């Protein structure tokens, strides 16, 4: 019973924007993390169908003992309709749902037929559930990405790790870069030498090299910012909102442990693994990875909560009526656009603020988003507002990487070629990186734009800017990721 109530509580918190699927499911108080995570994910995938079935049968109206908890009814209905072993709990809740099993199964058949899923007369429930699940899975993004392993060169070397993998009982044979990966094979990444590439299903959590910190599981694209920034050895680095710390440890490896890194985060729970201090430093390099929509993360499920909430708030249309987009769908699109614009304003503000540090020479800006509003549009707005900085030439920004910025999205073709994009077609999550450099003719103290002026953002919206910092109405913001490399 506890797993179901925990999963229901997580669904409620997702609606309230109190965390992500992973952060809530992996919280310390969650006892059976693996089962709860699977239950929440599967319930989200089937949310619209489960919600429709519960509405048709009107379970909550007939069962006051559920305390009007639609989320609890959703997770129970998922296992009742789709789990091979059904609802796995004792007590009063299982009999409550079992009373509606026949009606819910009939509702599932009706929903399937309305969606065009072929269900023959007399088909057993197991086959009906399998057909509906196949329909649901086919509607979800499914791109099996390789498993990336970054060698922690502070503790070992790439050669040593390769030899160690080769010597394992279940041998991992080194293959040529770019070859089709088979189970037991891996290759060294052609762009990032400290990265090894394994088949998608490879599990390293019990591997001693992983538990000892000699290898780090990190997506290839998220390894780009530190690699592109490349602060010099001996630099003093500040990592703001650094949790969980993969980019921090990557910076440390690039520095060859010769400098100093201070990492901090606004979330006290995530801060437990990090140390914080320092108030002043002479900044020379900054790595900024601000809050973004996360739209580039493959198999991300949090967005389903937003979609279903809007749809759930709208009355279900009568069969055969209504064409085009529903009010719920239109509201979702409008809400998403507003969210992107708010994030873009915040991202611009972060970078312009970083540019005010008098000794800063280089700044990387990165997002795990695929939206141009958070990528090319943001870079274009920053360049327009801060003439003391320009984009670094392509030969300094992964020159052999062919996936560059989108053209026609606010940047000139030349500038679009200087930024980096990544996506599932490249075998990574969606990602974007730009490297800003101070112009050689710009004085160190001229970080801000002198005087207040107006500028246009994203093709028309006007904001006031003063001293290089955006002055705009602040909306609710997620946590910010900043990394500052500071010269001693």
Automatic annotation (TrEMBL):
InterPro entries: MeTrfase_RsmB-F_NOP2_cat, MeTrfase_RsmB-F_NOP2_dom, NSUN5_7_fdxn-like, NSUN5_RCM1_N, RCMT, SAM-dependent_MTases_sf. The active site is at 368 (nucleophile). One of its GO terms (biological process) is rRNA base methylation. GO terms for cellular component: nucleolus. S-adenosyl-L-methionine binds at residues 241-247, 265. Residues 312-336, 443-488 are annotated as: Disordered. The keyword Iron does not apply. One of its GO terms (molecular function) is RNA methyltransferase activity. Keywords: Methyltransferase, RNA-binding, S-adenosyl-L-methionine, Transferase. Residues 473-488 have a biased composition (Basic residues). Pfam families: Methyltr_RsmB-F, NSUN5_fdxn-like, NSUN5_N. Residues 137-439 form the SAM-dependent MTase RsmB/NOP-type domain. Signal peptide: none annotated. Belongs to the class I-like SAM-binding methyltransferase superfamily. RsmB/NOP family. PANTHER family: 28S RRNA (CYTOSINE-C(5))-METHYLTRANSFERASE (PTHR22807:SF4), NOP2 YEAST -RELATED NOL1/NOP2/FMU SUN DOMAIN-CONTAINING (PTHR22807). This is S-adenosyl-L-methionine-dependent methyltransferase. It comes from Catenaria anguillulae PL171. The lineage of its organism: Eukaryota, Fungi, Fungi incertae sedis, Blastocladiomycota, Blastocladiomycetes.
